[in-house]
Design a protein that fits this description.
Family: Belongs to the short-chain dehydrogenases/reductases (SDR) family.
GO cellular component, one term: cytosol
Low-confidence stretches: none
Organism: Schlesneria paludicola
Largest sheet: 7 strands, parallel
InterPro entries: KR_dom, NAD(P)-bd_dom_sf, SDR_fam
Enzyme class: oxidoreductase
Number of helices: 9
Radius of gyration: 17 Å
Distance between the termini: 39 Å
Number of strands: 7
Helix content: 40-55%
Number of domains: 1
Strand order of the largest sheet: 3-2-1-4-5-6-7
CATH superfamily: NAD(P)-binding Rossmann-like Domain
């Protein structure tokens, strides 16, 4: 039980990488709180995890683009078990492939609110609780933050902002015993990935090409990212902070 009786808050935890993290932490005895605006998926997920255990799970409906909802949900999560040991800022969206001249400033601002401002805000709201436990913060960024992605200038920018925040906060909070790291996944087989592929002319061919980018010839799984998050949330990584860990399955090799 590597996370026994500790509390983790995961934004966007009902599906995809967030759900993969939640399942791993629950399996390791954690008390998992997922925040998500998809009430049906969130309720269904926590029911499953509570049945399988050995940890426990709680779902709180929350739209991370609305700071007042985010603050209320984090405070409720802290009250539920009287502590917060880890915050995983995972919630995010990937818009369809769009050239910069077709990207409206309104769309950019909305994407920033979901992908980056929510990361900043959740950290700000969780910080009083994390100080008490000398906890950890894990930001789920993307390899697009360092490699870029064609017709995804807005998305890549929001993900790069998460990496900059990670490094700045590692300096600011390290002396308080709080470690801050980021995970940069490459191609993970999630509903978000498949929704993005669906916007392309040939989704199946696109997914095959994406899978072939990794040296293993496949995409990663949400659970694999969850296991990396568990490592960063425990004392196994006690000397790591400010790290942007590239979980890319070798996709950037020979780039």
């Amino acid at each position: 039980m590597r996370f026994g009786n500790k509390v983790v808050i995961i934004t966007g935890g009902a599906k995809g990488i967030g759900a993969g993290c939640a399942e791993v932490f629950c399996r390791e005895g954690g008390r998992v709180v997922i925040l998500d605006k998809d009430a049906e998926a969130g309720t269904r997920a926590v029911e499953r995890w509570n049945q399988t255990g050995p940890g426990s799970a709680l779902f709180l409906p929350c739209d991370v683009a609305r700071p007042h909802e985010l603050q209320a949900a984090i405070d409720r999560a802290a009250q539920a078990w009287n502590r917060v040991d880890c915050l995983i800022n995972n919630a995010g969206v990937h818009p369809p492939a769009t050239p910069i001249e077709d990207t409206t400033l309104e769309a950019l601002e909305e994407l920033l609110r979901i992908n980056f401002v929510s990361t900043f805000a959740a950290t700000k709201f969780a910080l009083p609780h994390l100080r008490q436990t000398r906890g950890t913060i894990i930001n789920i960024s993307s390899m697009t933050a360092v490699l870029g992605q064609e017709h995804s200038s807005a998305y890549a920018s929001t993900k790069a902002a998460q990496v900059g925040l990670t490094k700045a906060l590692a300096l600011e909070l390290g002396r308080q015993g709080i470690r801050v790291n980021a995970i940069l996944p490459s191609n993970i087989d999630t509903p978000l990935m498949r929704a993005w592929a669906a916007t392309l002319p040939d989704p199946e061919s696109a997914l095959q090409r994406v899978a072939a980018l990794q040296v293993f010839g496949r995409m990663g799984t949400p659970e694999e990212i969850g296991r990396i998050a568990l490592f960063l949330a425990t004392d196994d990584s006690s000397f790591l902070t400010g790290v942007a860990l590239e979980a890319d399955g070798g996709a950037s090799l020979d780039y």
